[in-house]
Amino acid sequence: MPKETGEKLIVQNKKARHDYAIEDKYEAGLALTGTEVKSLREGRASLSEAFISIDRRGEMWLEGANIPEYLNGTWNNHAPKRKRKLLLHRLQITKLARGIEAKGYTIVPLSLYFKDGRVKAEIALARGKKEFDKRQALREEQDKREALRAMRYANMRH
Predict the structure, then answer these.
(1) CA distance 123 to 16
(2) Mean pLDDT over residues 49-56, rounded?
(3) Is residue 44 within 8 Å of 142, Cβ to Cβ?
(4) Maximum Cα–Cα distance across the chain
(5) pTM for the full model?
(6) Confidence grade of residue 158 (pLDDT, cut at 50, 70, 90)
(7) How far is Cα of residue 98 from the mean position of the Cα atoms in its chain?
(8) Rounded distance, CA 20 to CA 39, Å?
(9) Considering the chain, what percentage of its residues have pLDDT values greater than 90?
(10) How many whole angstroms separate alpha carbon 51 and alpha carbon 138?
(11) Under CATH, what is the fold of the domain 7-129?
(12) Distance separating alpha carbons of residues 46 and 17, to the nearest angstrom
């Protein structure tokens, strides 16, 4: 079988982009079992309740991510919501650890994707948005959409 190349998106965490202001993005590998990878190849995953923690040993973990059991799996299947280790360089982990010490900052998973046949997680150092920030972002998005619609309508009339 030929080796995979390129990127293929599995799942995005749209709620994280809405609830947090993204500061820095990182790409992290994931330590997974075989049935987890097979389930991800079918596009079955959810990051809606996922969060990232750093333990005392300086290891990063993806927790709360739901990767359902592989349908054709046997007794060797995985637990859907188990902790999964994130693979990053030591310097990146220490930089992120220093970042979350600041008030209001956290690390959130943004997406899972395949890159050259390996599962990667896009994670970000993020600051929580206040309610008015969320409304402001929605308003700006809506204004942009209306402006595009008006320009399209004006172009059609000529």
Answers:
(1) 10
(2) 86
(3) no
(4) 66
(5) 0.74
(6) low
(7) 20
(8) 28
(9) 13
(10) 24
(11) Small Protein B; Chain: A; (2.40.280)
(12) 15
